[in-house]
Design goal:
The complex is a heterodimer of chains A (199) and B (456). With 199 residues, chain A is an alpha/beta fold. Helix content of chain A is 31%, strand content 19%. The relative contact order of chain A is 0.17. The mean pLDDT of chain A is 96. Chain B contains 15 helices and 19 strands. In chain B, 63% of the residues are buried. Classes of the chains: A alpha/beta (199), B alpha/beta (456).
Chain lengths: 199, 456
């Protein structure tokens, strides 16, 4: 997984609440069982007008935000469907960090597994960051624009995973002996959990 | 004296395998359920990485999202490339050795309908699926929640997930529901009052007399909507009704008499991080007016002032009376409201009547093949057909048009589904979510209608 340490770039404004994953990547844009080929469909309902013509009103279609690695949004960003395609599409497009007032939980967890940083900041900070150049420093847990800096919270586990670009499965497989011991004793305690594979 | 614990806390504690050096919990996962839309990617990337499913007997998959729901279906779907999802799911499931409920398997159906039907989910279990509505299954007293594809891969490869302990919220519905008011209305009333982000950071336990009075299928409807509340999941303590409902199901244990099963409830003095109380008797049939489930009001109410974008999309100004708004499409289905009891209640309102001439499309999509057979055995299919509804095979269908099938742009739908997002049911489609009763009453009227006003 790609590590996240610091990034500097424009913060594209998407200042709506409840931006859902159907809007981030509509079902019809998820054309294969793979994880790629999704950037073109990112925000398709808002990004394109009829005939797939870029809508100049949409932030990511404006020249100053064309290469923005940061999105700023309102409450409950990434709500709705669990589709990880939403994060894959953002990452493939070049977004490395979303700053929002809050996140839907599955979306935030999907971000961590794909090297994308979800940052929660209050509404006034988001308003100040919208459309500005900003620097995000994960080790310092800070977001800076001009002379203003905000600190953000993140739990130690996802912070470490992102900073070091760690693969969660590889890390967990190191615990396999503990998992095996636990499973053996659990099998005795809760036999109904353990099913026999039918033919 | 042990410290009083919540039900979520008890299940969590019983599944803690180890703590990681960075402070997360390795939480044992008892069941993984996949569907062809998001699960196949997990199986494929596991195979590509040379990893195998640790315990295939506890991993299940079903075709529900992309599969066609028209009668006589095969592998073909209206979705461009959809057949690839189906064939790749079949190949990946076979290679991984997991149990697949294929397109025309008699047990096929929507994940969150068939998992309880087959007793795959049980009280006290942890169950994950790469699908946000996995919270539905908390109605059986399991800790069941939606995850992404990468996490599904993690759970299958390791048997655990790396988790931070959630906060626990109790939502108590005191009193009793009025006639014609349902679990769907309870959920929408909660989300309307506390916001689509209101449950963030929490697992929610639903409690109170109006919750325990719900039958098991209605409990699933209530828990289903927890993801629309941004909660990690929802749970309802299992009771005698739960165990009676589960008895004899294929993957369920032979009996639920051991003391363990009676321990699955929050202790009397358990402390919740957050408490919300609602008066069940004050809840009316709810209908969404906008593009988020939080934008829902009592059917007799006026559209309030909301975000301009929502008013523009849905085509209703503030101050408009929702009841009487003409509709074009009626849809009964989805993991929220497609079980036998849902179909029975809708059919009861439709029996001997016909939908309004202005309704262009009216569909009933049973939640599972078993629900479809049971409904047909009771003659419900004939009731729906006689009323002007089309009767389908089971699947997710037009909840989000993943089958590639869409309503015509600009159509206004009344839908027993869970999401009224922009474009959810197709580009430009204006979705109003409501109970199956409200959908049925509105289909008869050709306009959003209050089911309590129909003669029973």
């Amino acid at each position: 997984m790609r590590a996240f340490t610091t990034i500097t770039g424009m913060a594209a404004p998407l200042l709506a609440d409840n931006v859902d994953t159907d809007t981030i990547i509509p079902s019809r844009e998820m054309k294969s069982t793979g994880r790629t080929g999704l950037a073109d469909g990112l925000f398709a309902p808002w990004r394109y007008t009829e005939g797939r013509v870029p809508d100049p009103e949409f932030a990511l279609n404006q020249p100053e935000y064309a290469a923005a690695p940061i999105l700023v949004a309102g409450l409950n960003f990434g709500c709705g469907s669990s589709r990880e395609h939403a994060v894959w599409a953002l990452a493939e497009y070049g977004i490395r960090c979303v700053i929002a007032e809050s996140f839907a939980p599955i979306f935030a967890a999907n971000c961590i597994r794909n090297g994308l940083l979800p940052v929660v900041l209050p509404r006034d900070a988001i308003a100040a960051l919208a459309g500005q150049m900003a620097t995000i420093d994960l080790a310092a847990q800070s977001v800076t624009t001009g002379s203003r800096t905000w600190r953000f919270g993140i739990e130690s586990e996802p912070k470490q995973m992102l900073l070091e670009g760690l693969d969660a499965i590889d890390l967990t497989l190191k615990h396999l002996p503990e998992i095996d011991v636990w499973t053996t004793s659990d099998r005795a305690a809760r036999p109904w959990v353990y099913l026999e594979k039918s033919a | 004296m042990s410290i009083p614990r919540t039900l979520v806390g008890k299940i969590w504690d019983a599944h803690c395998v180890a703590a990681t050096p960075s402070g997360a919990t390795l939480l044992a996962i008892d069941r993984v359920f996949l569907h062809e839309r998001t699960g196949t990617a997990a199986l494929k990337s596991m195979a590509a990485a040379g990893r195998s499913v640790r315990d295939p007997a506890r991993v299940f998959a079903v075709m529900d999202h992309i599969v066609d729901t028209r009668i006589g279906r095969g592998d073909q779907t209206m979705m461009p490339g959809g057949q690839g999802f189906i064939s790749e799911t079949r190949e990946a499931a076979l290679a991984a050795g997991i149990t697949l409920f294929d397109v025309n398997d008699p047990d096929q159906g929507i994940t969150h309908v068939i998992s309880p039907e087959l007793g795959i989910v049980l009280p006290g279990l942890t169950l994950v699926a790469p699908d946000s509505h996995t919270c539905t299954q908390g109605a059986l007293g399991a800790l069941a929640w939606g995850i992404g594809t990468s996490e599904a891969e993690h759970a299958m490869a390791t048997g655990v997930l790396r988790m931070a302990r959630p906060k626990v919220m109790r939502v108590t519905y005191a009193g009793a529901l009025a006639p014609g008011v349902t679990a769907k209305d309870m959920a929408l009333a909660l989300i309307a009052a506390h916001g689509a982000g209101g449950g963030a950071g929490h697992a929610v336990e639903f409690a109170g007399s109006a919750v325990t009075a719900l039958d098991i299928e209605a409990r699933m409807t209530l828990c289903n909507m927890a993801t629309e509340f941004a909660a990690m999941t929802a749970i309802i303590a299992p009771d005698a009704a739960t165990y009676a409902w589960l008895a004899g199901r294929r993957y369920a244990p032979a009996s639920f008499t051991a003391p363990y099963w009676a321990s699955l409830h929050s202790d009397n003095d358990a402390v919740f991080d957050t408490e919300i109380a609602l008066d069940a008797a004050a809840i009316a049939p709810m209908v969404s007016w906008g593009t988020s489930p939080e934008q829902s009001i009592a059917v007799g109410g006026m559209v309030p002032q909301g975000p301009a974008r929502a008013h523009d999309y849905i085509g209703l100004a503030a101050g408009t009376r929702l009841e009487g708004t003409p509709i074009d499409v009626a849809f009964i289905g989805s993991c929220t409201n497609s079980r036998l009891s849902d179909l029975r209640r809708a059919a009861e309102l439709l029996r001997g009547k016909h939908i309004a001439p202005r309704i262009k499309t009216a569909l009933v999509v049973p939640g599972s093949s078993a629900v479809k057979r049971a409904a047909e055995a009771e003659g419900l299919d004939a009731v729906f057909r006689d009323a002007g509804f089309e009767w389908r095979e089971s699947g997710c269908s037009l909840c989000f048009y993943a089958g590639g099938e869409g309503f015509a742009p600009g159509r206004r739908t009344i839908s027993s589904t869970n999401r009224n997002f922009e474009g959810r049911q197709g580009p430009g489609i204006r979705t109003h979510i409501a109970s199956p009763e409200t959908v049925a009453a509105s289909a008869l009227a050709g306009a959003i209608a209050d089911p309590r006003k129909l003669a029973r």
